[in-house]
Every structure is written in C-alpha cells, then in structure tokens.
Design brief:
By secondary structure, the chain is of the alpha/beta class. It has two domains: 10-129, Response regulator (Rossmann fold), CATH 3.40.50; 133-231, Orthogonal Bundle (Arc Repressor Mutant, subunit A). It is 40% helix and 21% strand. It has helices at 18-30, 41-50, 67-76, 94-103, 115-129, 163-174, 182-190, 199-212, and strands at 10-14, 34-38, 55-59, 84-89, 107-110, 137-140, 143-146, 151-154, 157-158, 180-181, 221-224, 228-231. The strands form three sheets. Strands 2-1-3-4-5 form a five-stranded parallel beta sheet, with helices on both faces. It has a four-stranded antiparallel beta sheet with strand order 6-7-8-9, with helices on one face. A hairpin with a 2-residue loop joins strand 6 and strand 7. The protein is elongated. The model is unreliable at 1-6 (pLDDT under 50).
C-alpha cells in the first residue's frame, strides 16, 4: 500500500502476519502516512535500501532474518542508524524488552497491543526524527519555520518562499548539520516517482539562499564539495 506523495512520512511495516500488516497499513494511511510492507526480515532490509523509511514497525519473530537481527544491522550502519525502530513482540519479560532496546530499538511494544497506542508511538517517533511532518515549529538560529501554518521568518521578518523552497528549508531544519546529497533531496522534496535533473536541486537551493539572505543575513546553507548541501 503506497501513495504518491513522497513528502508524507514513510512507515515500513515488517510483519509476517498478513492480517496484522494490512490493519497497520490501513490505520497509518488513514492518518496520512505513506506505508510499505515486508513479510520477512530479509525483505525488510532490502526495502530499507530501496526506499528508506522514517519509522519501521518491526516484529521480533520473523522468517529468514529475525527482527532483532534486522534492528542490529540497521543501527550499525551510519546511513540507516537514524531510522526510528518500534519493536513488536509477544515477549513481555523485562529481559526481552531490555535486549530489544539495547540492540537499538527506539521503542518496544508488547503484543497484543492496541492500534491507537501504536499510532501514538509512531507519531512520537516522527516528532523526534522528522518534526516537520507532524506540524512542529522548527527553529535554527534566527530562522523560524511553522509547517502547520506554512510560514517562515528570519530575524522576525517574513520569508516569501515558494512551495519547493519551503520543503527544502524544512528538510534542512529537521537535521541541522546533516549533509544531504542531491539525490536524497530529490527523493525527500520532489518524490521518488518524479524524474527531474539533479541540477534542479542547485537551482532551488540558489533561490532559497537568495530569500534567506535578502535582508543582509549570512548564508546558512553550506555547499559540501562532491557531496551536497547542509544547514550550518
């Protein structure tokens, strides 16, 4: 189950029970999330590489590669370490919960669980890893961006940003200091199914810089030679 809007938060469900996977996908999509599903750990790892999610809901007991091993592998890799992982398990003993968290899981939910509680936990993780997607106000130095009202300002002066420049700035402000490649920015801001040249990123970053520095402020967007762009 997927939608076309790549700017939506993306949740990957790795669950070998088809009925549970479908219920989770249905409820997450009803709340505006984009979802993908995997039936085993091996498929889950492959899907992370193909289409990195913001949050993974990961069953512990999976065929081929266990959920705990999937979690361990993802948290060891720098490029996937920041993905939030919510571990699902029928194991309710404290020692199992501790093991799941020590392996790198960001949250641990015991089966059977209520769907509404799990939705709340997904939203909680999204506030941490991708705050712009849940209507947070983002602040970086003297720049303020409100994703709910779609307004931005610098030094209390309004910034007149086009939709693409707004999404670019929101992406940069979610993770100050992170270096984004042009391909990563295309995926996050334009969408994986939209085919545009990577030079388009340079054009829109240039427009964003022009707006940000219009009233004399320094340019907060850094060009990283051979890599991409970063804020600060």
């Amino acid at each position: 189950m997927t939608t076309d809007n790549q700017s939506q938060p993306h949740v990957l469900i790795v669950e070998d029970e088809p009925a549970q996977r479908e219920v989770l996908c249905y409820n997450l999509e009803a709340e505006g999330f984009r979802t993908t599903g995997a039936a085993n750990g091996e498929e889950g790892l492959m899907m992370v590489d193909e289409d990195p999610p913001d949050v993974i809901v990961l069953d512990w007991m999976l065929p081929r590669v266990s959920g705990i091993e999937v979690c361990r592998q993802l948290k060891m890799r720098p490029e996937t370490r920041g993905i939030a992982i919510i571990m699902l398990s029928a194991r309710s003993e404290e020692v199992d919960r501790v093991r799941g968290l020590e392996t790198g899981a960001d949250d641990y939910v015991v089966k059977p669980y209520s769907v509404s509680e799990l939705m709340a936990r997904v939203r909680s993780q999204l506030r941490r890893v991708r705050p712009a997607s849940v209507g947070q106000v983002l602040v970086y130095e003297d720049i303020l961006l409100d994703t709910e009202t779609h307004r931005a300002s610098r030094a209390e002066r309004p910034l007149k940003l086009g939709p693409t420049e707004f999404r670019l700035l929101a992406t940069f402000m979610e993770k100050p200091g992170r270096v984004w490649t042009r391909d990563q920015l295309l995926d996050r801001v334009w969408g994986r199914d939209v085919y545009v040249d990577t030079r388009t990123v340079d054009v829109h970053v240039g427009r964003l810089r022009k707006v940000l520095t219009r009233d004399g402020g320094g340019d907060p967007v850094r060009t990283v030679r051979g890599a991409g762009y970063a804020l600060g």
